[in-house]
């Protein structure tokens, strides 16, 4: 990652309830371009770990059907969701970005817990 392009990523998960033997979670992601050049979010790579140790990977273009451009200082927020078969799990991953001059780089998404309210006793 170019040293002069700091990108802040803050995940906020929320438990939504049980649905057809799955546990539903929403997560809101706040992405802030703290650098001095415009960047575009091109793709995502998620690693979802279920409470039983099973790991699922999700790779795709953009986020929620968009490839947002973030000028310097801009913040982009979106909400998406995940279903897992266990009461607890976690998500982490990375986003692929490109600068306005075409330089590609990745930024890690901090790991966050997916927890049903009574998942930890």
TrEMBL record:
- Report what the protein is called: Co2+/Mg2+ efflux protein ApaG
Please state every residue range assigned to the domain named ApaG.
1-121
Superkingdom of origin:
Bacteria
Species per Swiss-Prot/TrEMBL record: Marinihelvus fidelis
Q: Which InterPro entries match?
A: ApaG-like, ApaG_domain, ApaG_sf
């Amino acid at each position: 990652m170019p040293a002069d392009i700091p990108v802040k990523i803050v995940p906020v998960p929320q438990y939504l309830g049980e649905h057809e033997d799955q546990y539903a979670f929403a997560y809101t992601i706040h992405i802030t371009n703290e650098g001095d050049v415009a960047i575009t979010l091109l793709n995502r790579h998620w690693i979802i770990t279920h409470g039983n140790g099973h790991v699922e990977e999700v790779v795709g273009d953009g986020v929620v059907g968009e490839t947002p451009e973030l000028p310097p200082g801009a913040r982009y927020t979106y909400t998406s969701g995940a279903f897992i078969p266990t009461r607890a799990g976690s998500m982490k991953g990375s986003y692929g970005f490109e600068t306005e001059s075409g330089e590609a780089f990745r930024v890690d998404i901090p790991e966050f817990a997916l927890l049903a309210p009574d998942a930890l006793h």
